[in-house]
Every structure is written in structure tokens, then in C-alpha cells.
Amino acid sequence: METINVIIAALVTIFYLMLATRILSSFYRKITNPLNHATGILLIFTLIGFGINLHDFSEIAVSSFFFYTSTGNWFYAISFYLLFALIAFVFSFILFRFSFLLMNMTTPENEKAELGKNNIILALTHGVVYVLLCYILSSPITILANTMIGYSDLSN
């Protein structure tokens, strides 16, 4: 059972990070192509934030996986695992867009133009803001998602 959980976790993580990298790289390439140091730094911070969110959501995903496999319901076990990964991805992307809005409200510069000009200080500041938002909000949102879905109540 634990081996299957590790395999599923590895596959979900690889797919999640590949998809995040593809979407985020495409977004940053619209700012500057090829990526400069500033957009590269922000991409790295953004991927770290996506990873933080996946980590927090994976705790509940693993819990639901073991709950449903113990009842013999493999369909729910895998479905809820994938559902929590999807929620983590959507939450990460919404938070990513929110961090741009927040930075635009708090800094006088046009962020996209400044990133195109390779403004590393702005990229580092935005990156830290995004990672902190992920770190602070991911756990409460994970708990909220768990209570809204209530996987343990669905076994009947």
C-alpha cells in the first residue's frame, strides 16, 4: 500500500511540476523571450510556491488515499488524490495571479515592463511575496478544502 502511494505521489508531483513549468514559462515568455535573469528568478520562486502548495495538499491526499484503500475503494482513493492535486494547482495559479495584482498595487513601477528590463530587485521582492503567501495561506486553504469535500463522510 505504501509503495503504491509513493508511486502515485511521484507521478502526480512530476506531472504537476511539468504542467506548472510549462504554463509559467509561457506566461513569463510573454514578458521577455528568452527569459532574462529577473523572469528566471521569479519563475524559480513561483515553482517553489507551487511546490509548497502541493506539499500541503498532499498531506490530505495521502490521508484520503489510506482511508479509501483501507475500505477497499481504490477508485475514491485515486480520485481524491488527484482532486487534491488539482485543487492545489488551481489555488497556486490563483495565488500567482493575485501576487501580481498585489505587487502592482504596492509598487509604483509597471511590473511587467520592469521584469522585461531585468529588474532583479523587483523579481526577488515579488518572488518572496508569492512564497510567503503560499506558505501562510496553503495550510488554511487545505483544511478548508478538506472540510468542504469531507471525504471521510462519503464512504457510506
Secondary structure layout:
Elements: H1 2-31, H2 37-70, H3 74-106, H4 111-116, H5 120-149
Helix pairs in contact: 1-2, 1-3, 2-3, 2-5, 3-5
Question: Keyphrases for this structure?
Answer:
single chain; 156 residues; mainly alpha; elongated
Total helical elements = 5
How many β strands by DSSP?
0
End-to-end CA span: 22 Å
Task: Please mark out the parts with pLDDT under 50 across 5 or more consecutive residues, or reply none.
Answer: none
Query: Which descriptor suits the 3D outline?
Result: elongated
The amount of helix comes to over 70%
Largest sheet report: none
> Mind telling me the C-alpha Rg?
18 Å
Could you say how many structural domains there are in total?
1
Could you give the order of the helices and strands? Answer: HHHHH
SSE-based structural type: mainly alpha
Strand content: under 5%
- Mean pLDDT equals 90
Question: How would you explain this protein's 3D organization?
Answer:
The mean pLDDT is 90. The chain has one domain. The chain is built from five helices and no strands. It is elongated, with a radius of gyration of 18 Å. Helix 1 runs parallel beside helix 3, helix 2 runs antiparallel to helix 3 and helix 2 packs parallel to helix 5. The chain is mostly helical and 156 residues long.
